[in-house]
Amino acid sequence: MSRLARNDPRQYDDLAGEWWRPGGGFELLHWLAAARGALVPAASRPGAVLVDAGCGGGLLAPHVEHLGYRHVGVDLRRSGLEQAASRGVAVLAGDVAALPLADESADVVVAGEILEHVPDLPATVAELCRVLRPGGLLVLDTINDTRLGRLISITLGERFGAAPVGIHDPELFVDPGELTMHCAKHGVRLRVRGVRPSVPGLIRWLALPTGTAPRRLGRMVPTRSTQVLYQGIGRKQGSRGEVQV
Ligand SMILES: C[S@@+](CC[C@H](N)C(=O)[O-])C[C@H]1O[C@@H](n2cnc3c(N)ncnc32)[C@H](O)[C@@H]1O
């Protein structure tokens, strides 16, 4: 168990070696990043900006680098930002609840596995929507605030090594109805769908001697239930600079 409190972002400094370690502790984040990247359309104009809120080590970079965006990553921890920068992400130190970016400056805002870490969900959603242009796209994934979400992500996830011990605070898990309501307040109609890891990939990863895997042991697949992990996608109302999906 980390000496730090649950969800303390300084844990990511101790875990910095995991971001890109093949088959390492952040393996599932790679699968989620791939699934998230698949929801992002190609840029519809020169100079289009994709803001990656809580970018960590920049795991999204290989999944969007061919799409024509300037990939801007914001995170609290420099240890992650340095690795994101080395993958071609333009990085900014900052809090996702107070993004250091101008209003309506992003064509796409991505919030991957960050909303379950923020103490102020309404403020964070307001920020994500503030920096998004009218017609722009919000793409996110997070953990549901359900008993099953807590069982899988914490009780079992931490027990069997699928999540670093102490990285999540179950109090911050995100109810999709509440999230959808906050997005709607800021002009984004969010649609959600469940995702889960592919079972063979999960078994391969958990059975592996540490750090000996080739990249991508598995992938995320859609599932009817949003009870544990879910993705969200929504366009901000308005037509200026609209992104085609
Ligand atoms: C689970 S990781 C997700 C990283 C990345 N989005 C991905 O999916 O690979 C959560 C990241 O959010 C960052 N973080 C946590 N709270 C934050 C906040 N309030 N503002 C900005 N970044 C934050 C952490 O430093 C960490 O890099």
Automatic annotation (TrEMBL):
GO biological process: methylation
Sequence ranges assigned to domain Methyltransferase type in this UniProt record: 51-140
UniProt keywords, alphabetically: Methyltransferase, S-adenosyl-L-methionine, Transferase, Ubiquinone
CDD domains to which the protein is assigned, alphabetical: AdoMet_MTases (cd02440)
Gene3D superfamilies, per the entry: Vaccinia Virus protein VP39
InterPro entries given in the database record: Methyltransf_11, SAM-dependent_MTases_sf
GO molecular function: polyprenyldihydroxybenzoate methyltransferase activity
Protein name: 2-polyprenyl-6-hydroxyphenyl methylase/3-demethylubiquinone-9 3-methyltransferase
